[in-house]
Each structure stands twice: as C-alpha cells, then as structure tokens.
C-alpha cells in the first residue's frame, strides 16, 4: 500500500497516472461502519477501473481544538490503521495533516483544491460525514460542488443491536470494560499496542510472572480490571490473563500509576524492550484490594483458570 502524506499549506498535486475511488473519514477504530464505507469505495474502484484509496486525518481534530485535557484517545493508532487498510485491499492511503490550514478550508476549497487535484473519480463517506471549516460541508453539498467531475456515495448507518456503530460507542464500552461487546462492533478483538518494560517483579515472586506493557500515551485502554487476553509478540499469539490498574493491594491508588500486566501462559522468555500486542477477549472481574498476599495468590490462580476457559471457548 502506498502511503502519501498531505499538508494543505503546500500545493496538492495530482498523483501521476492514477485516479481514485476514495473513502474519506477519520476512521478511528475502523469498526464495522467504517469497513462498510471502505468496502463500498473498493467495490466502486472495481466498477470504474481506478485505484481504491482512503483519505484519513492525523492527528484527531480534538488535538487541535480541545486543549490538552480534551484530547480524545485513539482506538486505533495510525500504524495499526495502516495494517488493517492494507489487509482490506486499499492501495493508496492519503494522510492529511489536520492542522489550522486544513481546518479553515471552506467546503468549496476542500473539494476544488484537494479532491479534484488528486484526480478523484468517486468519493464515499458515511451519511454523517462533514468537511470544511466548522464542519459545514455535507455529502449532499459535496455532490453539488463536484459538478459532475467525480461521483459521490453516502453510506447509511450500520447498526449492531439496534444502535449505531460508532467510535463514541466503542469508547464508552471500553470505559466500562466491555471488551467482548467492543469486539462485536469492531469485527475483531480490541488491541492495545505497547512496549514491554521492566516491572517490579512482584508477579514472579507470587508465582505468576508477568510482562509489563506501557501502551502509547494517546491510546485509549479498557477500564481497570482483570481480562482474558491474547498476547502477541514477534508475530506469535499466546493465551494469557491480564490485570490493568494500579495494584491496590501493594500501592496507594493516589500514588500508583496504571500498568498493564500480562501473565502469558506456557511462556517464560525475556521480552524486555519488545513491541507487544494485547488482544482483549473478555472481562473477568474488577480490580480488587486483598487483605493478604495469600488471598491475592488464590484469586490470581482462579483468574488464570477462568481465562483459560474463556479462551478455549473463543478459539
């Protein structure tokens, strides 16, 4: 997949000898609704004999408008987004830098100075996609502004359990620890990607050695608690049980920092410094504070058995 970075402050130039059927959106999560939009763009590319493409934006608009406290955490980091789009069959990915120059474009400027200059033959987006300064542009308006130079398709909402599939809904589910429900909306397990770091070795002393993961700072993570997970490192997936939280049995909640600790079953290798992926399969229980180390050890053993049963039923 060809990846092309766009900066609106610079002149947008056509890509030589290529025309595009393009899906446009931020596409955080690449959930089932996004997948429907993108697949429609791919199908249209085959009908028109042009290149299937996606235009996304980076960073999230909240990083420009909402200030430090209002930034929205990413469901799908950019590199993960690239991987999924490539697997879907997208051949060209445009990443438009979301800065003030882009945010201030009028709908007319976005269509004339960006889309038309990129040799777009067809644009597909969700029914609620907006563009241009203050989101004033709609898909109906885009059709008029295209003036016959490219076609447009607006895709109706995709629902799961009679409710719209959306990034906001997914964020809410993750904040409640409902990772199995999140997977239904994504069409795959939710993933956290991070680096294995050196921990305090308490898990090993308790008889349950763990890999400690530090996810990217701007990534959303599930609610604190214990989960059945799949742990992926060096392309190989392992079953595991994961605790995400502040370890209240050992640390004062106000002083401790959130960590992701995975007890990987049947695995005991040095992973320090490696990139790892945690696939969240199901929630087991909330994070608890125990009155003794023995009670904690007993609960961890029970959690491990519960996780094994869940993972056996899922694969």
Automatic annotation (TrEMBL):
Name of the protein described by the UniProt record: Riboflavin biosynthesis protein
Q: Which UniProt keywords apply?
A: ATP-binding, FAD, Flavoprotein, FMN, Kinase, Multifunctional enzyme, Nucleotide-binding, Nucleotidyltransferase, Transferase
- Report which superkingdom the organism of origin falls in: Bacteria
EC numbers on record? 2.7.1.26, 2.7.7.2
A GO MF annotation of the entry reads: FMN adenylyltransferase activity
Cite the Riboflavin kinase domain residue spans from the record. Answer: 185-312
Is ATP-binding a UniProt keyword of this protein?
yes
Pathway participation? Cofactor biosynthesis; FAD biosynthesis; FAD from FMN: step 1/1; Cofactor biosynthesis; FMN biosynthesis; FMN from riboflavin (ATP route): step 1/1
Give the source lineage, highest ranks first: Bacteria, Bacillati, Bacillota, Bacilli, Bacillales
Source organism per entry reads Sporosarcina aquimarina
| InterPro entries on file | FAD_synthase (IPR015864), Riboflavin_kinase (IPR023468), Riboflavin_kinase_bac (IPR002606), Riboflavin_kinase_bac/euk (IPR015865), Riboflavin_kinase_dom_sf (IPR023465), Rossmann-like_a/b/a_fold (IPR014729)
The similarity annotation says: Belongs to the ribF family.
Pfam families attached here? FAD_syn, Flavokinase
Q: Which reaction does it catalyse?
A: riboflavin + ATP = FMN + ADP + H(+); FMN + ATP + H(+) = FAD + diphosphate
């Amino acid at each position: 997949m060809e990846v092309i970075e766009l900066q609106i402050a610079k002149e947008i130039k056509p890509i030589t000898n290529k025309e595009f059927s393009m899906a446009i959106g931020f596409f955080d999560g690449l959930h089932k609704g996004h997948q429907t939009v993108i697949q429609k763009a791919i199908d249209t590319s085959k009908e028109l004999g042009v290149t299937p493409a996606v235009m996304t934006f980076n960073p999230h608009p909240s990083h420009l408008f909402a200030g430090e406290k209002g930034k929205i955490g990413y469901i799908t980091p950019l590199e993960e987004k690239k991987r999924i789009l490539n697997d879907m069959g997208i051949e060209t990915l445009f990443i438009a830098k979301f800065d003030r120059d882009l945010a201030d474009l009028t709908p007319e400027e976005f269509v004339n100075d960006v889309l038309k200059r990129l040799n777009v033959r067809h644009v597909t987006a969700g029914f609620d996609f907006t563009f241009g300064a203050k989101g004033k542009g709609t898909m109906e308006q885009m059709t008029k502004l295209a003036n016959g130079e490219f076609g447009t398709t607006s895709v109706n909402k995709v629902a799961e359990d009679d409710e719209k599939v959306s990034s906001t809904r997914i964020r809410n589910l993750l904040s409640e620890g409902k990772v199995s429900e999140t997977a239904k909306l994504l069409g795959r397990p939710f993933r956290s990607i991070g680096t294995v770091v050196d921990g305090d070795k308490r898990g090993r002393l308790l008889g349950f050695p763990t890999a400690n993961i530090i996810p990217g700072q701007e990534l959303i993570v599930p609610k604190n608690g214990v989960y059945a997970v799949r742990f992926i490192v060096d392309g190989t997936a392992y079953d595991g049980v994961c605790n995400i939280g502040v370890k209240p049995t050992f640390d004062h909640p106000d002083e401790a920092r959130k960590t992701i600790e995975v007890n990987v079953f049947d695995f005991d290798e040095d992973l320090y410094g490696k990139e790892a992926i945690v696939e969240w399969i199901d929630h087991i229980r909330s994070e608890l504070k125990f009155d003794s180390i023995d009670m904690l050890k007993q609960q961890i053993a029970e959690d491990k058995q519960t996780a094994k049963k869940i993972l056996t039923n899922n694969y």
